[in-house]
Specification:
Blueprint: H1 24-46, H2 49-63, H3 78-98, H4 102-121
Helix pairs in contact: 1-2, 1-3, 2-4, 3-4
């Protein structure tokens, strides 16, 4: 009554695909390096050289090459830059914790504390939104 299926199903995974696959660890490394590189850009814009050097070391460790560094000035207010850096450090902390990268997690937490302190000293508050919440 019914004719059997002669071709492979489109729902069957292709085991011999010729594109590279990344492990979860590799994907998290890429994501963490991206968050830290973004944090580095804001940190450099704020003129925080020592903190920027520590972040750059971690980006280089994750990527295998030193990051390009330049202070691309956005003319944003320092409080806005500290808020942005705080949020980026929070995202980096989440990814570092998920991949059990203690060094990056500690660095991210220290940067969050530093930006919170800078905002408190300026009389501004960190954003009330959760990091990563949409």
């Amino acid at each position: 009554m019914y004719e059997p299926i002669r071709s492979p199903s489109v729902h069957t995974p292709a085991d011999d695909a010729d594109f590279p696959h990344r492990s979860r660890e590799e994907e998290l490394d890429i994501q963490l390096a991206g968050h830290l590189a973004a944090l580095l850009a804001v940190t450099d814009e704020l003129g925080l050289g020592t903190a920027g050097d520590r972040i750059a070391e971690q980006v280089a460790r994750l990527r295998g090459a030193p990051p390009a560094r330049h202070a691309g000035l956005t003319a944003a207010a320092p409080a806005d830059l500290h808020r942005r850096a705080h949020a980026l450090a929070g995202r980096a902390l989440l990814v570092a914790a998920s991949r059990a990268d203690t060094t990056a997690a500690i660095l991210s937490a220290e940067r969050m504390d530093a930006h919170t302190a800078a905002l408190a000293a300026a009389g501004a508050a960190p954003s009330g939104q959760l990091v990563g919440a949409h």
